[in-house]
Design goal:
The complex is a heterodimer of chains A (385) and B (103).
Chain A: E1 3-8, E2 14-15, E3 19-24, H1 30-39, E4 44-45, H2 56-71, E5 75-82, H3 90-99, E6 104-108, H4 109-112, H5 115-133, E7 139-142, E8 147-152, H6 163-176, E9 180-183, H7 193-197, H8 202-222, H9 233-237, H10 243-250, E10 259-263, E11 273-277, H11 283-292, E12 297-302, E13 315-319, H12 322-327, E14 334-335, H13 338-341, H14 346-361, H15 367-370
Parallel strand pairs in A: 3-4, 3-5, 5-6, 8-9, 8-12, 9-11, 10-11, 12-13, 13-14
Antiparallel strand pairs in A: 1-2, 1-7
Helix pairs in contact in A: 1-5, 2-3, 2-11, 6-14
Chain B: E1 2-3, E2 9-11, E3 18-21, E4 30-33, E5 36-39, E6 49-51, E7 60-63, E8 66-71, E9 80-81, E10 86-87
Antiparallel strand pairs in B: 1-2, 2-3, 3-6, 4-5, 6-9, 7-8, 8-10
Classes of the chains: A alpha/beta (385), B mainly beta (103).
Chain lengths: 385, 103
Amino acid sequence: MTTFQGYRRRNGSVGVRNHVLVLPSVMCANHVVDRIGRALPDVVTVNHPTGCAQIGADFEQTKRTMAGFAANPNVAGVLVVGLGCETNESKALAAEIAARGQRVEVLGIQETGGTSATIERGIALARELLADAARWERTTCSVSELIVGTECGGSDGFSGITANPALGYASDRIVAEGGTVLLAELPELVGAEHLLAARASEPVAAKLYELIERVEERARAMHVDIRYGNPTQGNIAGGLTTLEEKSLGAAYKGGSTMLREVIEYAQRPSERGLVVMDTPGQDIEQLTGMVAGGAQVVVFTTGRGTPTGSPIAPVIKVATNTPMFARMRENMDVDAGAILEGTRTLEQVGDEIFDWIVAAANGREPAAEALGFRDFAINRIGPSF
Amino acid sequence: MALSEDAAALRLKDDDDVAVALRALAPGETVRFADGVIVAHTAIPGGHKLALRAIPPGGLIRKYGQVIGRAIAPIAAGEHVHVHNVEGTRGRGDLAPASAARA
């Protein structure tokens, strides 16, 4: 059994970071959140353009994403800042976060008396949260308690030959240790769904087919070929010709174990093992959805060179080819191109990725984290009203 | 899986219609697999595909032993296989009947 030193939270989940998060419940609070972050560089802040004039499933998904993200065990405490008149009412969001076992404070700009008063009060509350966070200590935890998100972005013709199969090898090791692996980006499973369904129970396979049909139905409703947007121009320049070709390469990330569950965007898995989450292929929305679903560590393969990183979870970058790894050295952590160069085997690179996951869980910062990335975007499934 | 003699190209499954160039191939360059020889017609960038056999228009194209698309032009053995001669068969909302267009 592989162990690491993590933070065991009150709700039993295990964190690999100890952040204090300042989260706007609505875009109207972004400025105040930024100013609190400027005053206290030790807190993590995010900005987003959502939280108001949203309805139905779209609003539910936005709220679920914010609550799940704030309750991720990599976060020790949260300050929610709202305006006061928004759809995504800040006190209700804070209650949702607290219900998930997270320490949370909340402020409304209208109730507090304007911008400056809220910044001042917010700095004081965030200081208290930082002091509380400092009391947490790392303790021995098991890899079985990890949810590892897998992602590919800026894929090329080598993704399905080097980085994704090597990540799949690492995914199988995580699952063998009792841990959980998220495979996502549903549009990039179109054309490979039958391979996953063959490794799933009948209800799980049916759910997967339903989600894949939902992706293609959206394309039909818009009357467009998905290839206009995915594969992207960069994917095409890298040698990928069709969506199904990209998918067949992408599906390798999840490894070869049984598919245990298919879940909605930003939903927390209820099963361990390999789980598919319904996210778009858009990198930041996918990353945010997986972290909101509880992923503490993410492994991201890239052929063209995608620098993205999460505000609260380490994101390990695996290059599909050595020339890009060398060109974008500061953004990359693992060179899976070594498989093509013949200097390392797929299994050796897979072991290196597994070791990186454990090292990141122990506190080692991968490139995207050391560079300070705070990418955050919530997948919208309906228009603003 | 089959690697060509000097690791210039990789055929992922034995019955695949395409191989992946592992480095840039020059026009006229010979790629030797244990069971056959292919001459690259045009320059093939690394990571891109070359046809291992002739494929007629409408013919399905296999890589990883799976269908990755359909030829939209005649493809000769050794030719660059990409968006100019292959279309996807999935996610093709553009092929939906006009009445299905809502957005």
